[in-house]
Fold this protein.
Amino acid sequence: KPIATEEKDKLLLADKYLRRYYGMPAGLQGEGKASDLMHQKIREMQAFFRLEVTGKLDDNTLEVMEMARCGVPDVAE
Amino acid sequence: YNHFPRDLKWKNTNVTFRILNYTPDLKKADVDKAVRNAFNVWSKVTPLRFKKLYEGNADIMISFGAKEHGDFNPFDGPEGLLAHAYPPGNGIGGDTHFDEDETWTKDFHAFNLFLVAAHEFGHALGMAHSSDPGSLMYPVYSYGKGYPLSEDDIKGIQSLYGENTDHRKVKPKPDAPSKCDPELSFDAITELRGETIIFKDRFYWRLHPQMPEPEQTLIKNTWPELPNQVDAAYENPEKDIVIIFSGIRMWALNGYNLVDGYPKYIHKLGLPKTVRKIDAAVNIRDTGKTLLFVDEEYWSYDEEKGTMDSGYPRSLEQDFPGIGDEVDAVAYHYGYLYFYHDHMQFEYSYSSRKVMRIMRANSMLNC
């Protein structure tokens, strides 16, 4: 069943956020499904922001991803 | 706090900066002042000294630009990404860029240029992001008055450059309280539409039945109008409002919105003028009474009548034996009062009038 637009938007937001701030390599996402690496990066981001570490794009995680913030990555490269 | 890899920093403490262009959102003088004040934040606690250049190449080159602005690290239009800066080093090292698509301000409206500049200059001096939600180097924007560095920030920058040799006094913000600190005490506790809100310093934890992990947030991030310190709080489920007390003022919240007409003075409840602070408050859902605790005494307020009950204040110790003579916070669940004092929590049976259990205050934070 095709992924609903909203779901896809969330994935796109997370993909962009994790690439920009958590060093996730580009071009990993399969069609409409979060990769294992993405789950791992979500866990990294949740741990950094002291959110509940689920590896999933829950509401609290998305809420933080939508906040105005600094452009420097959270994981120092 | 975190540093960049290899603890990148400037080799000497005299650092130069230059402002290449200006945002039209503010007067040039306001931008100059915001930038100077932002550097002063760091020079107050270190030997670092910042010299402004008007031409040539400075260590920290400051500019405003939108979208792709010359460093292949594009901005993203309004909101979202506000600014970025590069770690100390030659060339682009130290350079700081602000997203011109944002609205830059000099007051509490988003986004305050001084605060964002102080954060970005932290990067330009060698600080990476901190995961302490109360620190200036926390990646998410939040507005706060007063000296912006927290103890966490100061430890970080001083471990790179040392302390300020002429010892000018600063009043840093305390670090965010740790929920599993064995000595943790609460400022206030209340329900809010099925969630439990616990106030401590400038923060609150939010406990939700489906969220095993409490979420810590700055009070002002959710309720900008509230003060940084809450003394007491309770929910009146009938009216669907939460009353917040701080000093001699009280606010009413309807969910996450402030009810018009507040803040009001606590004396409107019928408390004597000698009362300057309420330690704890709790609504007993079954009786419709709200108990207000002040030092060793407490009052009973009838929510329906909107008046204080006669025969108060009464002695806390006499009416609730076993919990001591002062409380920090009180909650009521299914016939049990939970008194919090220092790092202890007393479960008190309202019907049988005795203490049933004694636990650590933060046992409800999964600690």
